[in-house]
Amino acid sequence: MKGFLAVYTLLLMSVGVMAQHTHGNGLAHSHTYTRVIDFPDTEEYLTLACDFHIHTVFSDGSVWPDIRIQEALRDSVDVVAMTEHLEYQPHADDIPHPDRNRSHHIATESAANTDMLVIQGAEITRSMPPGHSNAIFIEDANALLIEDSLAVFEEANRQGAFTFWNHPNWTAQRPDGVATLTPFHEYLIANDLLHGIEVVNDLTISEEALQIALDNDLTIMGTSDIHGLVDYQYGIAEGGHRPVTLVMAAARTPEAIKEALVAGRTVAWFENTLVGRAEHLGPIVRASLDIIDASYGDDTAVAEISITNASNAEYLLENIGAYSFQSDLGLVRVPPHGRTTISVMTGEVLDSFELRFRVLNAVTAPKERLEIGHTVTVD
Amino acid sequence: MKGFLAVYTLLLMSVGVMAQHTHGNGLAHSHTYTRVIDFPDTEEYLTLACDFHIHTVFSDGSVWPDIRIQEALRDSVDVVAMTEHLEYQPHADDIPHPDRNRSHHIATESAANTDMLVIQGAEITRSMPPGHSNAIFIEDANALLIEDSLAVFEEANRQGAFTFWNHPNWTAQRPDGVATLTPFHEYLIANDLLHGIEVVNDLTISEEALQIALDNDLTIMGTSDIHGLVDYQYGIAEGGHRPVTLVMAAARTPEAIKEALVAGRTVAWFENTLVGRAEHLGPIVRASLDIIDASYGDDTAVAEISITNASNAEYLLENIGAYSFQSDLGLVRVPPHGRTTISVMTGEVLDSFELRFRVLNAVTAPKERLEIGHTVTVD
Amino acid sequence: MKGFLAVYTLLLMSVGVMAQHTHGNGLAHSHTYTRVIDFPDTEEYLTLACDFHIHTVFSDGSVWPDIRIQEALRDSVDVVAMTEHLEYQPHADDIPHPDRNRSHHIATESAANTDMLVIQGAEITRSMPPGHSNAIFIEDANALLIEDSLAVFEEANRQGAFTFWNHPNWTAQRPDGVATLTPFHEYLIANDLLHGIEVVNDLTISEEALQIALDNDLTIMGTSDIHGLVDYQYGIAEGGHRPVTLVMAAARTPEAIKEALVAGRTVAWFENTLVGRAEHLGPIVRASLDIIDASYGDDTAVAEISITNASNAEYLLENIGAYSFQSDLGLVRVPPHGRTTISVMTGEVLDSFELRFRVLNAVTAPKERLEIGHTVTVD
Amino acid sequence: MKGFLAVYTLLLMSVGVMAQHTHGNGLAHSHTYTRVIDFPDTEEYLTLACDFHIHTVFSDGSVWPDIRIQEALRDSVDVVAMTEHLEYQPHADDIPHPDRNRSHHIATESAANTDMLVIQGAEITRSMPPGHSNAIFIEDANALLIEDSLAVFEEANRQGAFTFWNHPNWTAQRPDGVATLTPFHEYLIANDLLHGIEVVNDLTISEEALQIALDNDLTIMGTSDIHGLVDYQYGIAEGGHRPVTLVMAAARTPEAIKEALVAGRTVAWFENTLVGRAEHLGPIVRASLDIIDASYGDDTAVAEISITNASNAEYLLENIGAYSFQSDLGLVRVPPHGRTTISVMTGEVLDSFELRFRVLNAVTAPKERLEIGHTVTVD
């Protein structure tokens, strides 16, 4: 009797989703989400979810490359790169003398008939300095089997690679976990041989790496560095997700993605934290959040508004504007793909007014959060 | 980046739903449903969810009538009747000498501006025989305050009431719980003064009451008889629902509903069991279930088909047809508002074939289940 | 007060519970909680969940008082007061001339054989000033039916009442929603006739009321002011909860609770926000959080520690200590009755070290959050 | 074998679990389960969950053997065998000339320091007849690289193998999906060279294979035949599970498991169906179900009893005893690791009485279900 068209539509999509609507600083309500990583495009760019650090049995990973494509399809990751260790081949007894491009080729075949992009890459695996680095957008990984550390960066760049420093906070190479530039890195950067740095790697995030990126104009990267299964490592069944780099690209092409990486237009997405320069993070957050349904109750000067969220992040907004709220004490949570209603005490009835928030889960520099403003127009 | 229009639509509806897709005799997967009671209309009739046995503070219930309307709106119950005990008024100290129509009038006001129908009713509350009975579609409950048990049925019928015997299996009046006709009931039935019987009341269901209904041409009724809160009594938050009578009515009007009740076109919906005469249960089950996407795999004689379910019931289907399945050993579960895929071994590739099931959760008589057939046309 | 034993008991009772374990600044994972309101006792006091503002059919509520006891039992609320409007009796046609103590007496009977305490109360219902106020711990509500507003406060205090100002931010009485003291209130406070103020009422919270409480030494109160059903108003099935006042009492007795209220030992619990003076909020937060399993990884100076949470609040901790973390950029979430693991970069291996957090969901004054420190001892 | 202790441990591990309690023929309530496969031991034997058909990159699977151990640990599978195709090596370009025991050896290393047993196996991969078969408990897979199909069975048996026919219903070898013995199979069976048959393989179950097992005294087997990821293939996150063989073994040793297989003491567990000979299925079902808390209500002859379920199966019980129930019309569902309360109308108050059920999800032969009786003693 009752219309369930919407439900039926969803059913056919076989996609589980439960909408959320909280009120002010609410407890996150129980919900079920798909694992889909989903951030909106900005006005200028496509927002592409990219994982540029992935291993398979062709170095020290535990799966065939086809599984990496299946995982990425389930996560709605748009772009991947298999980045096998060039120099570390623990499965060599079983997979002897592999072509260092083999993993990329199998992954590319597995991704045929999908719209996933597979970028050719490799991991340059050295003791510190320079530690580990990835080269992506390369032409031939075999040509990177060069003993001298500087020469391998030169060859990667000769191939047109975008290179980035992996897990500079790795305790196996930095026991204190503090990402720190070495003279070798400074040389690479000065000579435009190193272009990015992992601020996020697997289960870790590095404030010091973020500072290095900002100080040296390096692209901010977030990667999974997955060796086992994505589902196990990130608790996908419990709502977790792999870290990715959100790349703001002019098109869904390798060229456009590389251009964006070189230009530094990235945001790393780690657990519930977005990390990026304000000029990149701002557009993504603003594209995620919208304010709808602003109206005053009868005979009141309290405006009720709804903030919607078109992204996977749960935004934590600290009120830094002129007005206090009736719905909370200035900490507003907007659930992923949900919305929150807040009540703003504007003193008198206004046609429009200004809200201002510090976005606590959007980090632009160590200890600094993105600030956003929004002019609310009353309906 | 990804299309989430469907999700956004659902979001605005603030309705939680998680689609289910199982395979053959699958474990029920974890899911979240709305509390909405939802059975499809049949080809001939509307399927209306009705609760004709409800109490408030105006007899021995614990809520004001407005709560009964809120509960029913949340349950998507289409039709309710407040049926206060005429003779049992434990709140008389606080609510003295009440107008016996008062509860109905408040409920009617509360339901204004909704499409819920509120039918006037009362509970005739006697020791056995005749025990308790409801009269609905009455004109004035006060006029039913008559000492003689027969006279009250006559007056109710004079007002045009549809009457039914409440909880004939109630252990307070039948310690063994076995519904049994008395000569008084036989007289009422013989003289067309009693028209229905509760096969389902609250948390109980009665095989013997079902047999009495079938033997005496009484309408099969299922009601909540709620006194406290529906949410607590039926574990709504955990996925439970109140029992209702599904009335197959020609229109969404009191007249059409009464006509359907008098004609006996009802099915009781209790936990996961549907109880009704085959001629009424069949159309509802057939409207609930559909078979889509029938096709043979390449070079096989095994047809894969999907059975969809447009209702709240989880159908349990026992295969009684000519073919065995690859997907299960003949017990198929079709989740509520979900679907199940089965694989049928038809021996050779056929253009169409016949499936036949016993519907284990659709009861037509004691120990008897509805049987349905379906001709599958291969795409 | 209830602690994890209650949770374990619940498990054995076959009531759902799902513990959470997140990692740093994680997304809240999907989970199912009981509705039980549960904050630990502090070293000095019992922490009692109290709702001192409740209506029934005996004023303008929609349920009999027994439902209020059932709701409170399900919420694990320790103490309730029925606070019917003395002067506003919209059900007077049906419930004429009620004894103003009647609601309290029925509730008390309903709570017999439970360990719930029912405190006698009433709501003094006036236009502004002074607006609405509750008097609890009274002897006879009928004696408060006095026309003069001052006289009713005097009589309540003569009876030994604890009185508090209800919803000072109510837009029906303050269209701008801004809680503001009037001279009448100042008189009441100066003469010790008014002792508390609702910082939290139903779905609203008031920064200005909090400031008034701090400036005037009034007890901070949070109440539901429930008229309909708690389950509907607060979305209990979706994980919501009613607002309560956490009272820090020396014993589970009316006398001890009143003593605590007079002494101002309260914290209001609203959605995910705790509001109270630092000297009260601090002990509750510290009793909620514990640090366990601190250890350094082999050959690293990064300490991994687990923060456990024995309460219903999801704590949002901002790192304001000396060390940065590998697990997040300084925003740590500790899920309700769950735990979070963080990695602390202490520079070198230490036997013990100091962590310091701002607790973003624990508000001590407008724009001010509780700060806590914890010395971690490495295992 | 694992019992509730495992669940309790899981709780302490902060892994979600939600117990279920339904009432009669209830809708399955929303719930979250761990993926743990858990059936109780019987009075005589341990009940071990075994998966004897598994592939890795060493034949045509997509993961390294270590992932198979991780999956099995998460599923609480007690015993596994890697069964690589001897003759089908699609990864030979990358993994040339592998030792056919290599997969087993890596898996064994990965399972060190766990209590999982890894049994050595291989898949004999032929066209029909005899199709594919597994040999487990072998000594050297390389010695099975023999061209003649009969000779390979003879060699496997010389090594002491237990052998079974894989997916006799596979449409690639039997387009109609109907398992059918060939003369070659009859020869193998007659000469004790073939000992079991897969009634369950991956997503399929075969009534005809069950009949072949019963007619020829073959051991009933259920296996995953996993090539990709268990989590994806069986919808683990949505509550699914891999098929397994429950082996009733005298000890948790390879010898005892082999003895049980040779003796035919197995039950296959597929979706929600258990398949086995009545003498094996009966003890497992009886160990799963218990009746507790039988008592009559005051002044009634209706006994209320609780049926508990210590297993992963949701039991569907059809009442075939002498008494009807008040709680349902004879179809009782007992949720996994939950319980159900039913009300039995025994006519008069009895000290003890007999219940009898057909277990609809426990299949002993085509179209035949296990029947169980239970004497209820009233407390």
UniProtKB/TrEMBL annotation, chains A, B, C, D:
This is Ig-like domain-containing protein. Transmembrane segments: none annotated. It holds the Pfam family DUF5001. The keyword Chloroplast does not apply. Residues 1-19 form the signal peptide. Residues 290-372 form the Ig-like domain. One of its GO terms (molecular function) is 5'-3' RNA exonuclease activity. Keywords: Signal. The keyword Signal applies.
